[in-house]
């Protein structure tokens, strides 16, 4: 059987299933929903580059959503940047959604800074530093409510893209994957080009020691694992996917953070795993300092797809530098591009995305 | 031209436009979205029967939403009732949605008690007593954010039903209609069979005198009118409708409270008025103590449709009593029934609704 597949997508894991999966997005209008949250883990020096400095990372998820809704941020000047001034991958997502318009929704997993935009509330709380071993409150409540949102969203669309924006989220991903018994050390991604694996591992070990639960207990209870070592995006993202994937295909748009969500999803509801795939960027898929496919293959037979974005010929240094491994992914950039390519029946390409991204970069970043 | 029209719907105002409007719902699956809020106006003795006593009216909107999502309430025992024990019209809405399933969403305009369910947050606040003349905060902010939600919801559905659940809401409707210069005294509906018009008028006059704005200033500024004399449902409901009705038909499901929302909508965006209609119950349409059609005809050439519900042959006294004018409408009961009839291509009828409502009444009310 042959499937309709965008030319600028690489199938990194479970290729046949991945082709069958993305074929269902061909010519359809997916709905895009981004689950956003804050965790104080992002404020540990050296953990996150998703903001000009650790304190300002609280604003990044809200600002990313404003970018998608309004084409500019409201809660901050300009757009979220790394300490080196490299702009948010939200620029990529925004460009994909411009070329292939989709309904956009936001779900607040637990934010310190709310976007100037409507969002689904599921009664979550901002996340604490995972070194406390008590990083998330009421995970199951947010999971359950997001299931309801997912079931209802699924009635309104043929397919769903679930994204995330959580500064510090790869460290909490390491935390939850470790807690759930997966071999994740040295495997999670980073916004930094040189991945601070040792620091992340140390932080996670502190959290495990502080949480008061045995490794065996954590392994068997995904909600306990999230509450001890996760961030507030994970449980509602898993719930949203569980609720929707009962009836429609769901593209989990993200890098190694989505591997953690997949691990949570598997622990909560393994009946929907045949209806999901992970969609990311080439920069994550080819990253030598992390290993998304190794993580996913430990969890379930779920396809991994990568959008072949390439900024090496960009006229802007701030985009070119993505090729060195800075930023890599976020706001569902890779998955949104894949969805845009399939939704447009291949009319949206990597090349066309580059042009749109450069245009938006020129407007939002270089002229500031 | 002939239109496909459910047999158990009465066209009370703008009949031809109303038939053309509801024809667009024929065989389609509308999305249902209920805007809920609290106002302390409901706690003025004698104003609202949307709760067993005035203080407990704070729980009614949240409980209504739980009924729709879960088939039972979570934040209270049983279901919301009047002081006489008559159950919420949410039972009718729930029954309509069971017979003709629709995606269900909730928007929090400003609540003291939140539902155990996901909802759109637009950063509103609970409403104060309108006698203060400062009954709502940040009306324009909630309007703007709800516009964004409405635009995005409209991309996911062919048609939308916008409902409300706000105890005390007919008094705030009188407030805003009066502030906007309409002749509304004695025209708004009530959950009580004997409508406390004099009390409502007195409360509204107090609010107008306290608000610090001239009648002329109020008349020209719908957001100021809502902030002085409205409730927190009105601005986001108008915004949701404005955002959606740009592209799809929107049934405003409610009685005289929706006349107030229509007045706000007209003041904010009169370009979408051709794409809306008001859908209510026969009990509101035929009410001798209020006059929805007179209100609407002052505002715009917008159709008014009524679902011909008739509980006179019910085996339950708690439903039969609806025929005496108690409760009448709420939670978009009338509009949800009309939408269910059209959506099912006429297979859902008044008779079928009665059976379903009796079944749910038996399960939720009489066995308590």
Structure description:
The structure is a homodimer of 368-residue chains. With 368 residues, chain A is an alpha/beta fold. Chain A has one domain (9-366): 3-Layer(aba) Sandwich (Rossmann fold). Helix content of chain A is 42%, strand content 11%. Chain A contains 15 helices and eight strands. The first copy, chain A, has helices spanning 15-23, 60-70, 90-99, 139-154, 169-179, 197-210, 215-220, 222-229, 234-245, 256-268, 282-285, 292-299, 317-320, 333-343, 350-366; strands at residues 9-13, 31-37, 104-110, 119-121, 160-165, 250-253, 276-281, 304-307. In chain A, helix 10 links the parallel strand 6 and strand 7 (276-281). In chain A, helix 3 (90-99) packs parallel to helix 14, helix 4 packs parallel to helix 9 and helix 5 packs across helix 6 (197-210). The longest helix of chain A is centred in the last third of the chain and has 17 residues, at 350-366. The model of chain A has no long low-confidence stretch (mean pLDDT 96).
